[in-house]
Amino acid sequence: MAEPLKNVYTEQFVSDLCSSWKIVLPDLNESTFRQFVFKDDWNELELKQRMSRLSDAMKLILPDDFILAARLTRELISKLAADGFAVGGFEYMFIPEYIEKNGLAHLDISLAALQHITQYTSCEFAIRPFILENQKRSMEFMLSCSMHQHPNVRRFASEGCRARLPWAMALESFKQNASPIIPILENLKSDNSLFVRKSVANNLNDISKDHPELALRMAKKWIGNNAETNWIVKHGMRTLLKSGHSEAMALFGYAGSGAFTIEQSKVTTPTVPFGEYLKFQFNLKNRTSKEQIVRLEYAIHFLKSNGLQNKKIFKISERKLKGEETIFLQKTHAIKPISTRKYYPGEHGLSLIVNGVEFEKHDFLLHM
Asked: Residue 357: left if φ>0, alpha if ψ -120 to 50, beta else—which one?
């Protein structure tokens, strides 16, 4: 089993941290810092709680004057980078959390600090309380970040204002009205950094969940600009495509479901022992005389504890079929332990999805 992420915060990690920081903070009391971090409840703390413990420990070693503390925080992360630490990892996100927790009363100082810090480690979570506190000023700042020379800052401009950023507080006002986000995405839609473009696509996908018409208008406006923007549009429409949204399907030239037939589909493992593979196969035929683009997916209807089923969609492939062409496909799906799903023994289901339209469901039994 993989090592829990929270275990990145070892005593050696904290020791290295203090050793680097003593140049910036000559009076740093390493013993006090370590004792605060590794209090008796340390082993019970999860990842986010350990991050918060470290950000609280920073408050012990930094001045009470936040303006001075913010400047020193910028120096601390720069020092870590200069000393060769891989500060781009998630483990250093406790540093912007210090700004998040202590800087709300100093908006401009905090925003400037986050712009510097995000060049080293992501500040996508730390910016959100500032957006909630002062949306107008914060979004003006984020717009300026979208034109910054550093790709991490430009990515921060998009990622930090996603309405539905995973593991972060939701920005409910942007669920209601996404218009403040649009100028930022317009600035970044052709960015030369894939890191930035992925964030733009994810932001567009978030918008599509609350405002599908707006997301589609943006997609239609952007598509065809260049290869980079086309990738953003396709990735940003993924939720609408998974749901079989007809307008989104048409945007990418997918034929209607009537153009295809599924033949001889079956689950070849009607009983699947837990830890093994579900296996299925089928023939797909293009009924028309013209070449057609097909998006193939499958849905597993997972049995829940209450006896109902919950559908999860997985992509098989996207390809072109010549007129009247038939192809044979086989697929396996691992029924193995993952942290995001709990399995229950009993009857589950599998169905094939062609260009957003779901075909006949087949049952299979999961044996624990």
From this structure: beta
- The CATH architecture assigned to 5-251 reads Alpha Horseshoe (1.25)
Q: Domain residue spans in the chain?
A: 5-251, 257-367
Question: Is residue 67 predicted with pLDDT exceeding 80?
Answer: yes
DSSP state of 255: P
DSSP 347: E
Q: Which of 126, 71, 121 shows the shortest CA–CA distance to 100?
A: 126
- CATH for 257-367? 2.60.40.10
Using DSSP's 3-state secondary structure scheme, residue 171 falls into: coil
Q: Output the six-digit token pair for 97.
A: 């959390």
Model pTM score: 0.86
Geometric angle at alpha carbon 268, from 263 and 273, rounded to 5° = 150
Express each pLDDT in 189-233 by its tens digit. 999 999 999 999 999 999 999 999 999 999 999 999 999 999 999
SS3 149: coil
